[in-house]
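Input (structure):
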């Protein structure tokens, strides 16, 4: 902003202040306001129970936002978000309009495994490298400090899990900017179309490049072909 103000065009610029949330539709304003109240600790609360912590407060949630109670919460989430998944898991429009969000990585893994079991087909596991490179300068036994079992058990934000389970036609999401021109950017939704030994092929479900398969096969002027 400081650089813009020093520009010669700044004197010809007009300043407009935004006063309305354009991204929120009129029928969603009530929910958006409630979310703001929760963040500001202004939402309506319910009386504490004896077993509740003194530092915690229970927020009253509208019944319209709650799922029916059942024996398996995962099943209720799946039915509410992805009804008839067994018959529509290959439908691109069906997948484009649905998503399940959760704040915890452990819950994500549980949901992913549960949803994958609902999709027909054989499960394939991809694992990360779990061995250390040998170094001639290493002392004897130094590699024992980092055993494979420990490395494989590490689960934290920003670090992929050691094991990745996938099936053909499983929806996935890209977490890195790989090729923005081709639509391969962070948060791009895709559907797996082929499971190779080292490479996955997926079709884009969101953005401006919907329907494009990746990786694409390209041929140059030589007798060799390569993939990107």
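Output (sequence):
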């Amino acid at each position: 902003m400081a650089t813009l103000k020093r520009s010669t065009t700044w004197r010809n610029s007009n300043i407009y202040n935004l006063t309305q949330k354009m991204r929120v539709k009129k029928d969603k304003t009530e929910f958006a306001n409630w979310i703001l109240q929760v963040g500001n600790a202004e939402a309506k609360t319910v009386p504490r129970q004896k077993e509740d912590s003194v530092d915690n407060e229970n927020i009253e949630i509208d019944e319209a936002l709650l799922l029916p109670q059942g024996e398996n919460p995962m099943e209720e989430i799946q039915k509410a978000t992805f009804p008839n998944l067994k018959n529509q898991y290959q439908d691109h429009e069906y997948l484009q309009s649905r998503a399940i969000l959760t704040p915890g990585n452990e819950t994500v893994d549980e949901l992913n495994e549960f949803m994958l079991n609902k999709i027909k087909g054989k499960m394939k596991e991809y694992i990360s490298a779990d061995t250390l490179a040998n170094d001639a300068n290493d002392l004897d036994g130094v590699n024992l400090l980092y055993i494979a079992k420990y490395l494989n058990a590490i689960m934290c934000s920003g670090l992929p899990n050691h094991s990745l389970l996938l099936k053909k036609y499983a929806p996935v999401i890209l977490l890195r900017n790989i090729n923005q021109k081709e639509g391969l950017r962070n948060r791009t939704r895709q559907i797996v179309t082929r499971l190779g030994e080292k490479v996955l092929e997926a079709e884009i479900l969101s953005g401006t490049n919907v329907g494009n398969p990746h990786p694409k096969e390209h041929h140059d002027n030589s007798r060799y072909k390569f993939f990107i």
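Notes: Residues 194 and 201 are 5 Å apart (CA to CA). Helices lie at 2-5, 29-39, 73-81, 85-88, 92-96, 105-116, 148-153.
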